[in-house]
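Inputs:
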Amino acid sequence: MDSEQLSFHAHVPLSKYSKRVILKTIFDRSSDELVGERVVVGGWVKSSSEVRKEPLPQPPPPGAAAGDVAAATGPKDVSCGEVLQTRISFFRSIMKVLGGTHNPIREKMESVIQKLPPPPSIAILQVSDGSCVSSLQVLVDSSIVSPSQVMPTGTCLLVEGILRQPALQGKRDIELKVEKIMHVGTVVQDKYPLSKKRLPLDMLRDSSHFRPRTTTVASVTRIHDALTQATHTFFMNNGFLYVQMPIITTTDCDGFSDKFQVTNLLGKETKKELVTMDASEGISLESVRASISEKSKQVEELKRTDSNREALAAAIQDIRKTNELVAQLEAREKSKLGTSVRTEMVNFSEDFFPRQTYLTVSGRLHLESYACALGNVYSFGPRFRAQKSESKKHVAEMWMVELEMAFSQLEDAMNCADDFLKFVGKWALENCSEDLKFLSKRVDHTIVDRLLLMTSMPFQRISYAEALEVLTQVKDKKFEANIDSGVFLTEEHESFLVDEIYKKPVIIHSYPRELKPFHVRLNDDGKTVAAFDIIVPKAGKLIRASQNEERLSVLTTRIKELSLPKEQYEWYLDLRRHGTVIHSGFSLVFDLLVANTTGLIDVRDVIPFPRSHGKANN
Amino acid sequence: MDSEQLSFHAHVPLSKYSKRVILKTIFDRSSDELVGERVVVGGWVKSSSEVRKEPLPQPPPPGAAAGDVAAATGPKDVSCGEVLQTRISFFRSIMKVLGGTHNPIREKMESVIQKLPPPPSIAILQVSDGSCVSSLQVLVDSSIVSPSQVMPTGTCLLVEGILRQPALQGKRDIELKVEKIMHVGTVVQDKYPLSKKRLPLDMLRDSSHFRPRTTTVASVTRIHDALTQATHTFFMNNGFLYVQMPIITTTDCDGFSDKFQVTNLLGKETKKELVTMDASEGISLESVRASISEKSKQVEELKRTDSNREALAAAIQDIRKTNELVAQLEAREKSKLGTSVRTEMVNFSEDFFPRQTYLTVSGRLHLESYACALGNVYSFGPRFRAQKSESKKHVAEMWMVELEMAFSQLEDAMNCADDFLKFVGKWALENCSEDLKFLSKRVDHTIVDRLLLMTSMPFQRISYAEALEVLTQVKDKKFEANIDSGVFLTEEHESFLVDEIYKKPVIIHSYPRELKPFHVRLNDDGKTVAAFDIIVPKAGKLIRASQNEERLSVLTTRIKELSLPKEQYEWYLDLRRHGTVIHSGFSLVFDLLVANTTGLIDVRDVIPFPRSHGKANN
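Outputs:
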């Protein structure tokens, strides 16, 4: 069968590993080349209609195989059933008159109609195989298969047929007249979530396993693929080495993000130590616990307002210390017997890893190990934040592109980030024009203009101080949050700079030290740090970058200032103790780049299986 | 400074984002082009030696800048210190005679020697920047910097100098005479783990942050990078779309692997419900718990012997049910008060995700969602197994390449897997010859031959039954494990087939159903399933593949047979309910491919930050 099939595709190559022709290879060719070709295609029905055999205008014989005409005209003998078929609408109107659900005459009549062979007809199916936006028009005669079996949206088909010019002139150049059905995967129509046409994407978030069958998510997937390939190509062209960063880690990358813990202790046989204790002497455990609860609330408040990071880090540190106190109290009380307070301690030494481990928030610290040996390196993988916010731009699990360059200063990282965004933007414009056109029409008509803007001119570069100055001079706009030195710019501030003032992507650099993590290099003024963010229209903050502190003493001081657990960072400090180097890098939230490119700004619509707070379905 | 630097590299391009010349671009050029060029290079010292100034033969002026000669000859005036320097070895022999540690004369003399200026000398440094195996010979005159500062292995340098022909004829074509030191990152010699030469890699597993500075791990990283690029290129060339698979999942992919749990409940304020209960009536909770413990041991035993998977799945299921019983008992007892048994239940509804979530073991099930809409798709990401085995080929966190193809049968997957391995193998041979040569010498002299074997001929394809037959006919070899139908082939069996019988990679297909997961398609004989493994010399099992069951009824029966929790798989069954399609795919342990290509067969040596049982250092 293999060689037979290979022989009859003269002008369209077979898909290498599936003995069928990919639809894109059909649409990439002119119809002149294709008419009369016998091909096998597979895909899923996007929409369908049915025409009665008689009214269908007979297409001029397309010079194809003789069997074609026979198939198009169908069985010739006019049976009794066929005569009855022509009268069905008449019977139906009688039935309406008879009415009621339990009318015996109606029931009898219905059963007769059901037993009738279906009227000869042709099912016209729009079939997509995911290789491009366009669907192929596929015609199936009812003599081959019952239309009701193949017409429901979502039906999977593998068919063999002849390509021909459409009988009815329309926007299509080519259609397929089916001669043989090789596979039908039916659909349970009332249970299939895509049976309804043009369901809004947010309705489909609970059926993420079916979303790629929508034209929109299929386009998003192709653009996601293109941006992935562009990313690897950019770094390969520029001599970067790809390095896998660990997902499970014991290192807290910034000191203030909520992290997921990885364990083997839950839900198996209980391995936790239950500690029963008497807390009546000295410090009351209950009161300490109450203070933790109070402090937690403060932290949540600080996080919510997204304000001073140093204050946040200090508050978190405070809780950590109080927790330690609790642990000590518990340990001290452990040997004593009593019943007044019952609590528990998790004994991590019994876990798979003997220390507490987390899902990584960022791979940049680990990536430095490789930059401090091999020069320019990058990574591309999933990163995790157990953030309960309802922001559209963040879910628990997102992919990030991270890079680190030895012998490189902040300005080098700016140039690299600028080049990178231009490269991947151009790649999308060149390789995804059909998908961008579709999404422009369906989702956001500004996507192409935004890509052109990003790829055609240098980004605006301003310092944080300049940004504040520019914003405070704005008179005709009242911002929700005040513009104060030492606090974060809000999304509103950032988008005003990008959309209203500079009208292009903006690089904001030289942030106050309180606003950036401990590892960012302190500038000579002692107040600002060598970091920048890139803000783009619509998506907002796409890239966070920094030159990282290469001076051991400064880094140690920063860790102490923020009361971070120094023992966790010993390996990181080692990189400064031995052969330290000036280096810089950035991280880009890749899913946000996809969101920005496709115009679907809620990342839950562009991530294949999004995991957010309170949601994890499969 | 930027433009000035750019101007003086006539023949060697600057690294785009770091204002230095990458060493590989120097070695890629002939020395004729390079002599006399002024360049900036950066890197880390791999080894060093020091020569006294006088005995160094004066190189013929290489027609370079006048400053060169002056720098090479150094300061001309002969100071008192310099005279003393020439006598140091004489003083040292006197000191030896004086002996003892507290001899005042010796101490006085030592302090005089220490205060002397160092003798004029030239430090000869082998500097690597990670871009290739070779190091650049860099000469630094002691008048520029004290040799003791730059000579220790691991020192980081950024220097400017003139390229010239080496003064001493040797294997090198070119060396750098330093004129300006721009950065030195020193090393604390006795604390730097790489100070010793040629430390075995396994000694370095606890210092994984420094491993990339070894020539071996640098080579591994470059090969890893090349194989990554080759992987993406193969799939791009063949029309596959890249899709990110979720890391956090609620779905158990095969029903028998140990999984990591993801939670937000531990180590914070205690959120677990402590249940105090009286278990004196009816079934004794303690006896149920004892039986769980007993059953767990059985499971461990089954896992250890790596035998019948169906028995294993059943045993695990049995434990699951018993655990459920415990939970029910606990729930029933919850409202009662008592103290005889204390236990606890984790309330997952209070966790970040409201259901129990795991780190994914495999992305293939999720990938099917995309194949069943878009045709050919692949993924490349980290996968996790909480396996306590001490196998060299597995650690807790490994990257896998997975693909899924719609309208594709098992044979198509075989062709694809065969093509894939040949493509990436050829890519490595063409792009990593220097690294392969180095690793051949240092690690395993068979790596190039094995790559040639893999890329030059079709793999042997045999069924599991044929494999058994061939193995039972082996007379001159006694295998440790018996060859019985329905049990796994051991590594010993597999490597015998590959190394001794066929002498090339072997594809073993049509396994008994008991040996493969529930989703593998049942063959028409009702006994075997449509799966295959690819076994290669040295690494062993590199690829696991299957055509997955597209028939809803068969799949449902399989899930029932294995007592798997059907509710977890409802979304997966949905793909069969609506528009089901024949499809196949495979998964490849990428880190094992790297191990195989580099000859470092212990994957802990090729994974950047390996996580294995009892180990997670950073």
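Remarks. Residues 1-7, 60-83, 268-283, 333-344 of chain A have pLDDT under 50 and may be disordered. Chain A has three domains: 2-75+120-191, 206-255+355-605, 273-345.
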